[in-house]
Amino acid sequence: MGRVHNSQICEATGVSRDYWNEYFHRPIYSMRDFSFEANLRSLQESPVKRYTERYSDEVYSNVITFKNRERVARLDEIADEVNIIATPETFSIDTFRDLICEVYKLIIGKPFELKPGPSE
Questions:
Q1: pLDDT tens, position by position, 51-109
Q2: Residues 119, 39, 35, 75: is their CA dihedral positive or negative?
Q3: Where do the structural domains in the chain lie, given as residue ranges?
Q4: Which of 43, 49, 85, 88 minimizes the number of CB atoms within 10 Å of its CB?
Q5: 63 to each of 48, 51, 69, how far by Cα in Å?
């Protein structure tokens, strides 16, 4: 069986838009819940997969290309960093928010600012 073509590749970045799902379901983004506890629990229950783990070169074609090489490397670094800080002693909601914004920009190619809702 041949490798799968990922049809969700963002033309501007060469990165799969589908990778955003690793972050999209986290409370900080999906519910604008900036609470320390909810987001830490989310990461501990479901660690972030590295881009190269989610899109294994054995399964998908063109996972790493000349166009996306640096972005993929950084996305993998961020996943590792997020998973490392997912302990009560080291977790910072501000750092997590900043990393999510960076992930979005790496995937989509446009800046993104994640702010608490008006009631926070």
A1: 999 998 888 888 899 999 999 999 999 999 999 999 989 988 889 989 999 999 999 99
A2: negative
A3: 17-108
A4: 88
A5: 18, 9, 9
